[in-house]
Amino acid sequence: MSVLPLLIDEAIKARSKAYAPYSRFSVGAALSCEGGVYSGCNVENAAYPLGSCAEAGAISAMIMAGMRKIDAVVVVGGDMPCTPCGGCRQKLREFSQPNMKVYMVNPQGEVLLVRTLEELLPDSFGPDHLV
């Protein structure tokens, strides 16, 4: 995938902007789609459940740009693979297909794990089920 180095770079940059004063676990995400690359970072809140994930921020940026289909995602957290949480897996499913690749990288940009969305969210329910 030729856009992968750019996605990794953008996810690392996004991670550096994260607001994580409570967990001290910064996460960045970047996704590619036909309209370009969009990134986001996690944003915590003193009322813990009100925080937002990096993937959700990247999806919001993509939607604001008028795009609707994710081709690939990179998530960077710590030194171990940081997979999308369950809620973000479903959010990703809303805008991609089960064969979409999710790359988990470390802060140095090394790919630690690659999974399809189907592997992360088997037998998923998506918008195609409502048509």
TrEMBL record:
Reactions catalysed: 2'-deoxycytidine + H2O + H(+) = 2'-deoxyuridine + NH4(+); cytidine + H2O + H(+) = uridine + NH4(+)
Span of domain CMP/dCMP-type deaminase: 2-128
**Which cofactor names does the annotation list?**
Zn(2+)
- A Pfam entry, by short name: dCMP_cyt_deam_1
Q: Which domain of life is it from?
A: Bacteria
Q: What is its EC number?
A: 3.5.4.5
Q: Which UniProt keywords apply?
A: Hydrolase, Metal-binding, Zinc
- InterPro entries referenced in this protein's UniProt entry, alphabetically: APOBEC/CMP_deaminase_Zn-bd, CMP_dCMP_dom, Cyt/Deoxycyt_deaminase, Cyt_deam_tetra, Cytidine_deaminase-like
For this protein, the record's PANTHER family field holds: CYTIDINE DEAMINASE (PTHR11644:SF2)
Q: Give the function comment from the record.
A: This enzyme scavenges exogenous and endogenous cytidine and 2'-deoxycytidine for UMP synthesis.
Q: Which family does it belong to?
A: Belongs to the cytidine and deoxycytidylate deaminase family.
The record's listing under NCBIfam families reads: cyt_deam_tetra, PRK05578.1
Name assigned to this protein: Cytidine deaminase
Which organism does this record belong to?
A: Neokomagataea tanensis NBRC 106556
Give the classification, highest ranks: Bacteria, Pseudomonadati, Pseudomonadota, Alphaproteobacteria, Acetobacterales
